[in-house]
Amino acid sequence: MPIWFAYTLIVLLVITSIILTMLILLHRGKGGGLSSMFGGGVSSSLAGSSVAEKNLDRYTVLVGIVWFACIVGLGLWLRLQLTSA
To answer: Can you give the pTM of this predicted structure?
Structure first.
């Protein structure tokens, strides 16, 4: 496989890592823990609806699958390069 394939996967991995981090930080805390310690437990119900939470969950799962596929693709590409050299 050509080297541009690996570079494309690396760029996609960096982009999806940043997006995945932002999406995870957008999630609302579900009870105690660090989020409620820093004021997350005081938020009102106006912060988001259930439809917005479901869509956020879907986007997070989708970006997570793309992120995982990039890691698997890079691993397979690296194994192919090491066996052919």
So the answer is: 0.76
